Amino acid sequence: MGALVMSKAITIDGKSVSFIDGQTIMDAALAAGVYIPHLCHNPEFEPHGNCKLCIVSVNGRNMTACTMPAAEDMVVASNTPELDSDRQALVQMLFVEGNHICPACEASGNCQLQAAAYYLKMLSPHFMHFYPPREVDASHPDIFLDLNRCILCELCVRASREVDGKNVFGISGRGIGTHLVVNAASGRLGDTNFAVTDRAAQVCPTGAILIKRQGYKIPIGQRTFDHKKISEVQMEPVKRTEPEHE
Amino acid sequence: MEPHEFPHIEQQLAPVFERHGCEANQLLKILREVQEIFHFVPPAAITCVASHLGVPRTQVEGVAGFYFFLSLKSVGKYRLLFSDNVTDQMQGNPELMQYFCHKLWLEPGKVSEDNLLSVDSTSCTGMCDQGPAALVNGWPLTNLDRDRLDLIAELIHDKKPVCDWPSMLFEVKDNIRRAGTLLGEPFKPGAAIRATLDRGSAATLMEMEASGLRGRGGAGFSVARKWSLCRAAAGDHHYIVCNADEGEPGTFKDRVLLNSYADLICEGMTVGARIVGATQGFLYLRGEYRHLLKKLEEVLARRRATGLLGRSILGETGFDFDIEIHLGAGSYICGEESALIESLEGKRGRPRNRPPFPVTHGYLDQPTVVDNVETLACAARIALQGGEWFAAIGTTQSTGSKILSIAGDCARPGIYEYPFGITLHEILGDCGAEDPYAVQVSGPSGTLVSSKEFDRRISFEDLPTAGAFTVFKRGRDILQVVQNFAHFFAHESCGFCTPCRVGTQLQKKIVDKITHGHGTVYDLEELKHVGHIMQSMSHCGLGHTAANPVLDMLEKFPDAYEHKLKNFAFEPVFDLDGALETARNITGRDDAWAHLS
Amino acid sequence: MNEKRKIRVATCSLAGCFGCHMSLLDIDEKLFDLLGVIEFDRTPFTDIKHCGPCDIGIVEGGVSNAENVHVLKEFRENCKVLVAIGACAITGGVPALRNNIDLWDCFQEVYLYEGGLEGNQIPNDPELPLPFDKVYPIYEVVKVDYFLPGCPPSADTIWKFLTDLIEGREPKLDYEMLHYD
Question: I want to staple B264 with a disulfide (CB 3.0 to 4.6 A). Which of B258, B377, C78, C145 is the partner?
């Protein structure tokens, strides 16, 4: 079947994965049901490539799968103990960089940072904690913005720009001082035109952007990642959103 | 500050907008001027600039928050930034800064109560051969000592404008100690362009190929190949960019080239423009070299007047090319070519995802060549004297000469030009290094070389370098040197990717812990672990190389840290007793239970 | 054959809520199996005040004050294997929510403005453990051999972990047993 169609292919962990021009390694992998861990990537938006969890070894060189275009003859290694160990270290870095106190977070169980850590079998954050002083912004009537939990994936930045056409979010500062900013002179989310129906309100992988009055509608223990691995959830063809029970 | 404090901001900014227009890629230029007017970028200005350029406020705030020479809080009418490069440190800059702060009742990083002055440190200002150095409102101060600081304190006290300060404070010397083919031979402006026109673009490109010229910024990519790729790339416009964002601590050769060989650089750009088909060039000048701006503008004006820039260069119809200078604003990462292009476009200087590469998708997504200052100077020579002439100098894989910026523990710091292949021994002899113990070749991102390796050679095949050559004599504390570099990387990480943003901080904290005498063998292993993650997972060269000094020290200089280590397997991450200090102060307790050893 | 020597175990709770200890008790009837192979040294169950030489030390809670450090160091010195149990021991947990609040503000709020003590004064009795400026996970103070996350880890998780450890296997948790909440 389809023998006449010239299909190009790369190899990921020994499996042949076909791709069409313009697809990244990540696109090809997701389409073929091959899981590569990722946090800042969401196929709905422009690839960003900053969490670095999806780094794979391509013909012996490390490359970012979500931004690297697939090319014929690429031999990709992803599911290796070495890469998973390095990915675990990245997740640990994200944990100590912010203030991620899972037992006190509404997003626990639905959080992709936490789920990636489960997937990578992280038992402790390992590194010294930074405990940075960060702000919680409750000024918006429907949404909390808790920068303690922001991992700078810029999914909200991209969603607001690309889908909502609003540019509610941006990034300022540099280095360890890099931080999310909102489009208001006051710096408060409540003074922007952000709406709970915005796509950007739904895409935060952690509990940095939380919709108010939803917190514990679904009890801990019955949430997305309590029984399903992030690999299964991120591979589901239907995009994951926050449960919408009314 | 509230917006109402700037009721006339629209009028105040009108002339700035007038000068720069309303394209979004003018953002950084506009913000530089905003900083000069208000001594910071007030929220009201962010709103005003955003509305003028038609971009989201977040974008303006993002750029204003990225560059070190822009600030979102007031830094006072005078901002004095002491260079904290390791050579400045060895020359006593930290003590000088302390002296100055003490004298004026100031705290580093904070603005004085009368909003007149703030003092802070900044990454290497490129004056290592005439330090200790600092910047005042962006202008370089050299050869600092207590007398000069007393004078400066007086000038500030009298509120004298910086432009009226005595010129001797700002004197910058070239210090060329050894000139070779690039620096030593006379050059007549226009000669290389003439030769290129006579020979033809394709033939000149072949001369570049024959010369074997490789990029002088450190990576060593073939110039002929880069130019060919750009020449062949489809695009509405092609651009050529001179990377004069010389930020690697310990490097200052471009400062000298720009000061005294600007024609050679412009000529290299013009030859490159002819070959790749560019009509517009940019010279990205690091903010620290702002003092060169006027002189460079004069060179450009003279070249325009003499038909070497502008329309129909040297009378050749259709050969139109001009150069615009773009001033940086304090960011090491902008030396990375794709971050530099982002900055040229007025954005945050964050390295792009590659591919696509700048040769096909660079400035405004158009084919763009980015070359180092020295590379372009070499290209001009090659266009004039031919590839074969150039290839005869140096080694087979590293043709031509290399300009080194030598500083640190040596009698004659300055600029030295050598054919590639020169040994460290010879260089150390020439510069008058007394009892040399280690050399940092190519700056913190390069290699820390021990005295056992002084027979190694400066070349792409052995010790590649972008030019920095920092000498340390026996007795220098290598751990302190490495600590300085670890702080540098933590300060200059752009913050985009996880491994570099967090890894450079972890590295800094662990090196500090060892320096303070609290390190153990466990911490050494941690440094290797963090170093490995940065090397293998980072987005760009900054992260890939940020662990180099630490890893070099661990491998080659055990004497530097072993005596500092505690004799047991593990030591708390933080200072236990120190972490009780706040509570001791609050409760007024000082009993035995209020302390931990 | 000689009867096998029982494995000696000590436990404590530093800046924690004893929830992990409660979860340990939740293994219910398996406690009898457990007590067949282990014996307790210092724990809240035995009321022994100081930890003697032990095979396993299990520490709940983060490090919030000077006394926590004394206890933790005693555990580290006496236990061949040290286990951090629960979110607080591993990340600081809920007590670490105070890390963004200035200690002086905390003291003022509690003792000066709210009138917690007669005469509105800040207590300075040497018997009171002096608090750190922040709450830290225990692995930032001593070397920790094993981590058992959860808030608390479930009884089944604790049982699986302990039986692995006691029987000389590397403890291994299935996906559903690994939780931070």
Answer: B377
